[in-house]
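Milestone M4 deliverable, item 7.
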Amino acid sequence: MHISKITGINNYRNLSGVSFKFDNEVNFIVGENNIGKTNLIELMHKMIKTGKYEETDFKNLRDPIEVVFTIEYCSDELGFFENTFDIDDEYSITITAKQENVDARIEYCHTESGTYINPKVIKMMNFIYYSSLRSPNKELSFNNSIGTGKVLNFIMKKSLESKDLEQMDLLKEYEVNEVISELNNKLNKLNGLSGEKIEAFLSNDKENIINRLLEIGDANGRSISKLGDGLQYSFNIFLNILELLVHLKTTKKENDFDNLLIVDEYGHKLMPIILGLDEPEIHQHPYRQRALIKSIKRMFMLI
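Output delivered:
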């Protein structure tokens, strides 16, 4: 499944009247600064995932934003939009996405018949937008609850679950207790009120302990924050893809998650994913960009 073309854009930033055609695998949007490359990616991100445009997206606040786009799919994906498809091609559907004003949300319908399309179905296409403004070194930490740090935390948690560990298996208790004792001797001087005492103790939270112990980096023990922007960028993209799967797996019931998947004739479970990378050339030279795309395609096959 892929967006094959956008045939009409009205009142969105500087893209009114512009149309696009897309390859079914990889597309590079090339052009001068300020012509709308990032605007196109953000348009698709809001149209598919967010379901709402912001005030700054409206070129004219008095008019609605309207986008007409076509999705093509294979025989295994028939029925994704139930019985709605284009008359001249059962393997495609042209959709009109329209937001009347700033306070409304995007509404979707089949362009030819006007049949209503549930926004949840559009969101199931799973658009991943990776902005060039992201800072991987602020996310890539086991002790982080934002961005792709959530994925590292999830992987660590699953690894702990596979082992029967007590918190003392992670530390040498005698040495730690010596440090705690010395620390509490100093903290005692800060306890001014009678009957009130604040002191340090060893946490029983195994996840918290190992989160604070671990860092991520290269085989030479260098922290990810000390490595090149290109490596941070590419590794964070892979985690960003996994972040989508972790989010769906942890927030959906098992049956609901299975409903997001498409099963092909060989029994393989497939999930539609569209990945939008903004300005990869900032961190990746052309050869590395090609290698990155190949790696992403291999990863899609594995997951």
